[in-house]
Amino acid sequence: MNMQPSGRGYDHGITTFSPDGRLFQVEYARESVKRGTTTAGLKFKDGVVLVCDKRIISRLIIPESIEKMFKVDNHVGIATSGLVADARQLVARARVEAQVNRITYGATVPVDVLVKKICDFKQSFTQYGGSRPFGTALLIGGVDDNGIHLYETDPSGAYQSYHAGAIGSGRNTVIEFFENNWKENMTLNAAMKLGLEALRTANDAELNREAVEVTVVDSEGYRVLDRAAVNKQIDRLKPLDD
Questions:
Q1: Are 122 and 133 in contact (CB under 8 A)?
Q2: Rounded distance, CA 115 to CA 103, Å?
Q3: 10 pLDDT exceeds 60?
Q4: Which tens digit of pLDDT belongs to each residue from 52-63?
């Protein structure tokens, strides 16, 4: 009897290794991220800019009701792509970790410490029966005593630090754009312009002014740009070629 190798039996119920060393549940979670909206982040000389496209699919939807950006603490923000419901659980966990650090040590949590704690939590859901990986990737940006940080986290619990990064359906296009255009010590306006240009390049269409959100984390803390400020930045972009 010929047995064809497949993922059957190794992708149901629990996360376990297949004979060729793959974790199918983690791979499925990554596919969920790839289907998510494009989200980008990049460092500038004073902090981090996070940019996302909410992908409004109906004019009946109120754009402000869709959450893709989250404040964790005054010095840390998170942008997500994938299953937003999963992301909210991770954000809630991150907020608790930030407050525990503040109460225990009387200081804000270092960004790298927070990222490691969240990724340890994510990894645990790839290891035990009866659970599934979180179907979301996170861009975590922040500023602390150690400098300016931008991390990308994976459903597996892996994480990497970037000067500029992206998650979601347009990730590869945005990363290529940043590799060609990102520079150190950019101003805030230059960073926002570059992030919006990258998002537009990934969508291959003009940006929906009601669907784009921009947040900044710098020495002034975490703040969300209002609609007028976002539109002002979009107005600075050159029109796409016909």
A1: yes
A2: 18
A3: no
A4: 988 887 888 888
Q: Is the CA virtual torsion 220, 49, 119, 54 positive or negative?
A: positive
Q: Which pLDDT tens digit goes with each residue over 71-84?
A: 999 999 999 999 99
Residue 67 Cα distances to 30, 115, 127, 240, angstroms:
20, 20, 29, 28
- How is domain 24-235 classified at the architecture level of CATH? 4-Layer Sandwich (3.60)
- String of DSSP letters for the chain: ------STTSSSSS----TTS--HHHHHHHHHHHTSPPEEEEEETTEEEEEEE-----TTS-GGG---EEEEETTEEEEEEE-HHHHHHHHHHHHHHHHHHHHHHSSPPPHHHHHHHHHHHHHHTTTSTT----SEEEEEEEEETTEEEEEEE-TTS-EEE-SEEEESTTHHHHHHHHHHH--TT--HHHHHHHHHHHHHHHHTS---TTTEEEEEEETTEEEE--HHHHHHHHHTSPPPP-
Q: Which two tokens stand for residue 122?
A: 């994510």
Cα-based angle 120, 125, 131 (whole degrees, multiple of 5): 165
Reported as a single tens digit per residue, the pLDDT across 140-149 is: 999 999 999 9
**Separation of alpha carbons 4 and 19, rounded Å:** 12
The single-letter code of the amino acid at 51 is V
Q: Where are the domains of the chain?
A: 24-235
**Model-wide pTM > 0.70:** yes
> How much is the average pLDDT of 19-28?
75
Residue 159, burial from CB neighbour count under 10 angstroms (0-12, 13-18, 19+): buried
| 142 contacts 77 by C-beta, under 8 angstroms | yes
